[in-house]
Specification:
The chain is α/β, with parallel strands linked by helices. It has 26 helices and 24 strands. It binds glutamine and zinc ion.
Length: about 750
Amino acid sequence: MLLSSNLGYPRIGQNRELKWLLESFWKKKINESELLLNISNIKKNNWIKQKKAGLNFIPSNDFSLYDHVLDMCLTVDAIPDRFKKLKNKKNKLDLYFGMARGYQNKKIDIKAMEMTKWFDTNYHYIVPELKQNQKFNLAFSKVIDEFIEAKNFGIITRPVILGPLSFLYLAKSTSKKFNKLSLLVNLLQVYKLIFKSLKNFGAEWIQVDEPILSLDLNNEYKKKFISTYKTLSKNSPNILLTSYFSSAYTNYNILKKLNVKGVHFDLVNTDKKDLNKILLNFPKNKFFSAGIINGRNIWKNNLAKSLEIIKKIKKKVGDDKLIISSSCSLLHSPVDLNKEEDLNPIIKDWLAFADQKLKEIVFIQKSFNSDLLKNSDYFIDNKSSIKKRENSKLIHNKKVKSRIKSITPKMLKRNNSYLIRRMVQSELNLPLFPTTTIGSFPQTSEVRKFRLKYKRKEISKKTYENFLKKETKKAIKFQENIDIDVIVHGEFERNDMVEYFGEKLNGFIFTKFGWVQSYGSRCVKPPIIFGDISRAQPMTVFWSKFAQSSTKKIVKGMLTGPVTILQWSFVRDDQPRETTCKQIALSLLDEVLDLEKNNLKVIQIDEPALREGLPLRKSDWNSYLKWAIDSFKIASSSVKDETQIHTHMCYCEFDDILDSIEKLDADVISIETSRSNMELLDSFKNYKYPNSIGPGVYDIHSPRVPTISEMKILLKKAQKFIEKEKIWVNPDCGLKTRGWSEVKKALKSMTTVAKSLR
Ligand code: GLN
Ligand code: ZN
């Protein structure tokens, strides 16, 4: 008998209840007990759903009020000193949410812990802070409590816990450099306590997540795996060790030696060759968890194909030791496709969200346990959906496919080198230390209100457009008044920098409820790329043209880059990401040339997600960077020398991809640096960036208005590393989340600083 399991279920609830509850609680509209009672209902619903689906292994402790890594910090008492004041508060959640979001009242002002991306997903976790000689204790029993909670509903779960080695690896050290692994022995004491107590309460299995196994690990970490799991497996429920997001073969030589009862493999990211190598000597006494259902996309599984793969595995792994599973936690997929009533039914037929994926898992399991299912309607329908999708006219566009084939090396290169372009572009007549912004201006509640009314058809297109024109003109007037050199139209017409373009491109579709957690109460609703991409209509020309016709100053056209559009969407699984990305790039090229034709002399193509698209393993970096850079260049290189191309990047450390950024050959790059006090610039000590660069001098992530003197200091520092002729002065990202009053003050100071430096 095969078994079935799920590694984690979405936390946000069927209708994003988690978001509404958290936000009401933070606004003090509900109290702690109301919050916890309702939260308990979300968990209960999730468990019941999974039980009904027929899974053998149902997770608990996969849920979190904010983030599972934060939960782990509290569990092992890794509470940074600055939060100790909150420890004895009556309201226990003050500490928890204080660590996540910062804590501020009249007397106390504590900065939140840092947040960063969870591997290559769009989920953000709270980064643990560890100091030298840190002591751990079992301080928070959530993992045990939730097991008991589910047990009280009659469900014996398989608790999930982040493994000790991944916990240490993902943490940052706050005292000067020390080896985090020196804390392992003490940390394991806490884990041992937890495991023992879970066993006592009746847990048969525990799922220990060690996602760092999908990275290139150094030897020191590798070695610790063996001893760690030897220690942990004593007096513990059966351990299922999981890793996900890259080929399971990466660290297989460690995995097969570990003293655990079962090992989970992400088969979505493991190719045939690697799987064969694994099966060649998979230990007979271990359970094999086959992560065959993709936890990160929205496509129906090709069940017939999966059955073939499982059949192969079954030959090498005992029947009673084979578990059918999701590839990773379903946290990364939307909850339930059935809610999408307005979706094009042809495309809807190709999709599966979390609830549908549970069904797929159980189908695969059961079809091995009983022959009847092979003739079931469910299976027949699945085969027909897969076939229809393969051959659909909606997907395949001959013109797009042949255009991809006709990309020439010439299309990847500007006509002349930066030095020559620079001379030609001097006709733009820009002063030393030219000033600009990153694109968006405040999206006030009024702007949002008008957009909503327009969407609901409560106001006409004309009324909406007139309103946007008025806002755009206001923004332009303001920029003229404070004398910004290259001005923007303000992006008032855009809801979101990817959605706006997706709506105007063929090959994209939008769901109504396809929400996925990004962090805490925040969710995103990525567009779905289902087919070949082409431009249905000019996308930004109208607004850029309008702006340029309203001012004598130079207006910058604003586009979102191909990699970022790709990265922040659900993408096709029937062709390489590279192909999809290049299709987007060609559509953007059409737009760039249209902007140029319409007299826009400066065009910015934002690529904030370029860095986050980097594969988890270094050996895969080069091939990604090659097509990512080529895509940007396809979109940007066919313009005249006179046209100045800008790009913008934020959210991350760029040190390790500086040479790739150089290869983009944008005339100007604006880049986030102000939060880290221009630390980034240190990398320019040894590295000469050849083109122009605008290191952000105004941290737009905070409502704080930067002072003239601090911006001056930053720019002075920049001049140590970058020739002053190549420095631009700008904020570090778009201003859409800020209020006008701060923005006005900050930008006024910014232009004052630039002028004083001239
Ligand atoms: N042009 C975009 C804006 O200003 C860039 C946003 C981003 O980098 N995330 O809003
Ligand atoms: Zn940005």
